[in-house]
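Practice set, problem 2.
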Amino acid sequence: MDRNSQTFIRCQILVNSPVHLGCDEVYEPTGFVMDDEQDQLRVFDPTDFIARLSQQDQASFSAVCRKGSVASILEIYKFLQNRPVDGLRVEVCNDFKNHYQQIIKLPLGDESKIQQELNRFLIERTAFTPYDNRPFIPGSAIKGAFRTAYLNWLNPEVKAKSYEGKDAHKKLESYLLQLGEKPFETDPFRLVKVSDFRPVGFFKIKIVYAVNRKKKLSKYEARGPYQILEVLEPGVSFIGTITIDSPNKKVPIRTPITVENLWKSLAQFYGQEKHREDEELKAVGVKPIEIKVAEDQHLIRLGRHSGAECLTVDGHRKIKIMQSRGEKPKNENHATTLWLASESRNPESNQYLRPFGWCILEELEEEQWRRLEKEEREYKHQQAIELAEKLDLERETRARIVAEEKAREEQETRLAEERKRQEEEQARRQAELEAMTPGQKDAATLKYLSDSPQDEQLSMEIYKRLENYEGMEKINIAIALKEYWSRIGKWSGKQSSKQKAKILDIRDILDEA
């Protein structure tokens, strides 16, 4: 609709094949764990993770991180393996879990091998918002796709001549858009404003491999090594707006963009490129993506590995093709390979490979827009509830852990105090014993004996030494023996004849009837 000489369009982008929108970010080794049971990457905040570790685990983890060696990265992976963490969950393709296991099992002594494998294990993230980790489609990526389509739509109309040199593309753009001497002021895309497109409700992202395949079947594989990419999966929906300002009469724009022409350029260019690629895919055994474009919908291609043809102007393509080692690259008007999304690093066939980047851009009525915004609000509300519940549970868990740690510390304190008291008591007794005469030591020793065989044997030895003592020493040892035997049940009641004889001896010493 028009707003003060503007054309304002509410839109939805529906993802139809894997889309990766580079953001120069990777998943760092200290920021994720592999959940083998769920086949998911669990992404977390390292600071929060460390805070939840026990003091012993914190010390161990810090010691590994401080090493700073290539091999220590594997130690980090091993430390984190299958640890329970909260955070973003990212599905992984079939082969990724095996790849991860192979990485962490590398021998720590071969740093050259580790470095080589880790260089190939970089997991590139798709564009995301740091505060909630949700993916988005940058407006600049959409606008870039518009520009390529529009240039291709203009090309047959104005019959542009061929340009050479490093500025060839800029010269071609200037010619097609009739920019003149003021390329910025007269560029029609200066008046096109595209917002970032944000997801609606639940979103699905996945870790896949990008593999390179020749467009013509050959016994030799394409030279490009696999890449590991996080992608938006088919079925994900994003909403945003497009605004086209009316040209300022003071600055003439010779090729003004209208909504009608923009949609025509998308249909013509991406329709042709989709048909071309479908034929190339069939030739190498890949099933093309089926896309039905309804009224008020427009085909568009976004993100990395969209194909060189979808980024250039037909008839003016100079795509660099690498040759055998030692030979100079050459330029062609078409790419000779395709980058395709794969579940495996080395797929045995091309049957299940998928092309990247195909999407549908759909115009929305205000009612449709409000419905999607409501869906997004409800999703965020539910996420907020779940987050609050999780925080409550975390608080309860932390409070329980703190209480358990406090109780354990108090128990350890009590045990330490008891050990100290026993040690002090033992030291006191030892000091007293060392200051005593032999008779006093025997009497004192009997006070602390138990009914163990060893202690009974010791009591017998003291009894035998009675004849060596006289006077009060003898009486005190006799009293101690009586108390000891009473304590262990060997003074009264039924006793052996030998024990009765010993009791009589003690009674005589104590002058007891």
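Problem 2, part (b): a different protein.
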Amino acid sequence: MGAGDPGWRYRGESSAFLLVFRAFFLPESIVTMKFLASTVSLLFTALLPAAEHPNVVIVYGDDVGYGDVGVYGATKIPTPFIDKIAGEGLRFTDGHCTAATCTPSRYSMLTGLYGFREGVRILPPNAPLCIPTDILTLPKLFRKAGYRTGVVGKWHLGLGAKGTPVNWNGEVKPGPLEIGFDYSFLLPSTNDRVPCVYLENYRVVNLDPSDPLYVNAAPEDHTSTVYPYGRTNPEAETYYPGDHQHSETVINGIGRIGKMWGGKSALWNDETMADEFVVQARKFLERQEKEKPFFLYVSSQDIHVPRAPHPRFQGKTKLGKRGDAMVQFDWMVGAVSKALEDTGFAENTIFIVSSDNGPVYDDGYTDGSTVRKSTEESDQGHDGSGPYRGGKYQIYEGGTRVPFLVRWPARIKPGVSSALVSQIDFVASFAELLGIKLKAGEARDSRSTLAAFLGESETGVPFTLEEAGWQVAIRSGDWKFIPGQKKKGPQLYDLSKDVGEQNNVQAKHPEVAKRLATQLSALRKGKGLRSK
């Protein structure tokens, strides 16, 4: 029964009043001021109408590193809109996604489960939905509390059922609507993968039935549009060349991963993609009612390859298309924030800005993006990981320590927090905020850090796990332990003295390494973190 249900509120009110009644008839020695204060707090929480629950908007960057944002140290990329959000809210300096790659981070944020538990890795273009439709998810949690839910932007969590090819010319499901979203407007996979079309709810947008869309395979007798194949027709890659992997179907002069035929009328325009997502996010906000809260997940394609920022952002930095795409992402954050203001929702909206993993540079395309720091390859002095080692695909801090901002004008005081927090803990934290008790087996790896997210405590989680491919490391306080691999022994870093993870102190602190190795092994074999 949802928080908006009158019966739910009545039972809550009765319980709260009963507690107050009992309090006044208990012996004086038992009735403490602390007890009364907590009881009164419970009463007012129970009386709180569902409409007064905060709205929640998450704007999620793609491959945006810790050091790509001004307030986190970037000097070569202007990010005034994100910096403004940081000044109005809480900026976390030890905030993490769960994995150094896209799909498992998104999976974990929406389910409260680590990707390694289900073997979730980067998905190919024709992958089925990787989130089971019968488990609790973040949007389902909000729906329990009476929220309207929506997702706009990059998906990359699979579509369709396992073992059944998706019919792109009919209804494409299961997908976001089956895991708790009321509305979706998607980039189905990633912008470097086919199909290069938008999907609204179950249907491809602007699809012409006379030019059916096929992905991965097409009937031999099909009459759909045939696109250039980059590996045999490299001259078709007119935007910029791609590597062998990114040179299959060529759309808009850019080679993609995977094969696609048809759907010409439905093709997206890479350079207007950010604008389209802002338009759709604004439309979702404009459809909302003041008396019913909402959750909106806005997932940007920036700054993932192929980077194709709108012409108005090109040349805004000296860091090539990667830097310019970051300026575009900053604008997108500002545009969604402005839409909240225009619709009157900003004051009571929790607005979160973060990323799915750390930075990567020329990742498959020769797009002119300059690389890390002042090296032989670049004299621009920019490092998307900031002071941290590694980035996308890598197990070091730069792979998962990302920009992490939380603004809620009605409650959160602006500031900076060093609490260790992770996106995987959104499910449990919002459950606590909404007064929903998680059942056994739900979001098993998610632990509430609500007080930290609200800036009411500097204490986050005592430990968290970080993934990169098949590697899993553990952060425990300032210690970071990475198990040994075939060609490399175990690594232990003391981040209080070595944020760049340059000095492996495993030999100096074998007892710490042993303790963390044992803890990590137990956590990987266990069913979840919440009971630990």
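Answer key, part (b): The chain has a mean pLDDT of 90. The two ends are 29 Å apart (CA to CA).
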